[in-house]
Design brief:
By secondary structure, the chain is mainly alpha-helical. The chain has 13 helices and four strands. The strands form two sheets. A two-stranded antiparallel sheet has the order 1-2. Strands 3-4 form a two-stranded antiparallel sheet. 31% of the residues are buried.
Length: 374
């Protein structure tokens, strides 16, 4: 806001200066016209003595040396000024325009940050800087009866643009997630924010995304603590909850609340997972039921399933044998959807890089192997 009002003041000052110059020029013009007219009147009748072309002028010598030289020098100087300033202007213009774009990017991100932290209270559930958190939530039966009061994990958003395109995030923000604590924010979903405010929030989210290596290191550490897989992918942590690397990835954060479950599959594919009361693993919730050999029918080969889990659902696109992605809410775990030159969306000062992905190829292969065993 400060930046904006500063710009308005600046624009007003410039306009004021413009008006002053315009007024001075107009007055000068009027004075010149009047003076000229009066001079012309004075000369009426005196043409013979004072005709302009009979006024004594410089003699040939002066005309062809001093006067000519001075005029030529003046012309050369003017040309030099134009010759220097025009290229300088050309050189500076793209930089100036870029500077303006950057200034606007910064302004949008600032507004998004304000909304994230206070205006829309995203931070209350998703944690400061999108590190993940939880929300208190009352589960009710379809008839409205109270069922339970729970703490529902809210996924980390500092990797949300690793797994969803900006359009997919916009869609989630506008409509929220039914049957979960995530409210609708856009007008179309009955929420309080304007399209521009939602875009500002997405710009802010883009500015707080982890780097690829940072995210990878966090995941490596979590998996070392909860599984520590051997060469065959069997977990070796004494007394650990998971048998295989695939199972540990599928449930990453179930007991530790790591990143609000952002890297897990269970939070969408296992009923009750997000509030610590997991039902049948992969039994289906917001994401499809994956049990009973369902994956094997949908994806005849593991490679096809790995491909789908890497790219995720794309709104309205079919996948596998008979799959159709609704709103593209199945995240992509191995391919960053926001890296598509030349039209990379979002603030140019925070471009996304292809190594910003949720899971490595080996991790995806492990979790797919686990799913195919369900
Ligand atoms: C009352 C708590 C709460 C508030 C406030 C809230 N969220 Fe959420 N949000 C959640 C929960 C819980 C989920 C996970 C829902 C689920 O289990 O599918 C979620 C899911 C999401 C997702 C989907 C992420 C994914 O990987 O599935 C996005 C994006 C998101 N929220 C962004 C926001 C933004 C931006 C705001 C602020 C405008 C916000 N949320 C405010 C609780 C909240
Ligand atoms: C944010 C919720 C969410 C998360 C997290 C999630 N999924 Fe999904 N998944 C879905 C949805 C929704 C679908 C249905 C397809 C669609 O709409 O894109 C789906 C579909 C699938 C399918 C196809 C099922 C079929 O038979 O059609 C597979 C396989 C799958 N997910 C695997 C995974 C794996 C593996 C992970 C973790 C690495 C995972 N999912 C994490 C929401 C999720």
């Amino acid at each position: 806001m400060e930046v904006l009002s500063g710009q308005i003041v600046l624009a007003n000052t410039q306009r004021a200066i413009g008006y002053v110059i315009a007024v001075i020029l107009s007055i000068g013009f009027v004075v010149a016209v009047v003076a000229n007219m009066r001079k012309g009147r004075r000369e009426v009748g005196s043409e013979i003595e004072l005709a302009a072309n009979r006024k004594p002028y410089y003699d040939d010598d002066t005309l062809e040396t001093t006067k000519l030289d001075r005029t030529l020098a003046l012309g050369l100087a003017t040309l030099a000024v134009i010759g220097v300033t025009l290229p300088l202007y050309w050189l500076a213009e793209p930089g100036r325009m870029e500077g303006r774009v950057e200034a606007y990017n910064e302004t949008f991100i600032k507004r998004g940050e304000e909304l994230y932290n206070t205006g829309a209270q995203c931070a209350a559930c998703h944690g400061p800087k999108g590190v993940g958190g939880a929300a208190n939530y009352t589960i009710t039966a379809p008839n409205g009866d109270f069922v339970a009061q729970v703490s529902w994990q809210a996924p980390a958003l500092n990797t949300v643009l690793f797994r969803y395109s900006r359009d997919e995030v916009r869609n989630i923000l506008i409509y929220g997630r039914g049957f979960s604590p995530m409210p609708a924010w856009g007008a179309a979903g009955g929420g309080p924010l304007t399209d521009q405010q939602i875009d500002n929030i997405i710009d802010y989210l883009q500015s707080i995304q982890l780097s690829g290596p940072e995210a990878r290191a966090e995941v490596e550490k979590e998996l070392a603590d909860t599984c520590a897989p051997d060469a065959d992918g069997k977990c070796t942590v004494p007394g650990g909850q998971f048998a295989t690397l695939g199972e540990a990835i599928f449930n990453m954060g179930l007991y530790t609340k790591f990143a609000g479950g952002a890297y897990s599959c269970g939070r969408c594919h296992t009923d009750g997972w997000s509030y610590g009361q997991p039902g049948v693993p992969g039994g289906g919730a917001f994401g499809w039921n994956l049990t009973g050999g369902r994956s094997l029918r949908q994806f005849p080969t593991a490679a096809q399933q790995i491909e789908f889990v890497s790219v995720g659902g794309v709104a309205g696109k079919s996948y596998g044998t008979s799959g159709l992605s609704g709103a593209g809410q199945m995240p992509g775990f191995g391919v960053n959807p926001n890296v598509t030159p030349p039209n990379i969306p979002g603030p140019k000062i925070y471009p996304m890089s292809p190594d910003q992905v949720m899971l490595t190829e080996e991790q995806i292969a492990a979790v797919v192997q686990y799913e195919r065993s369900l």
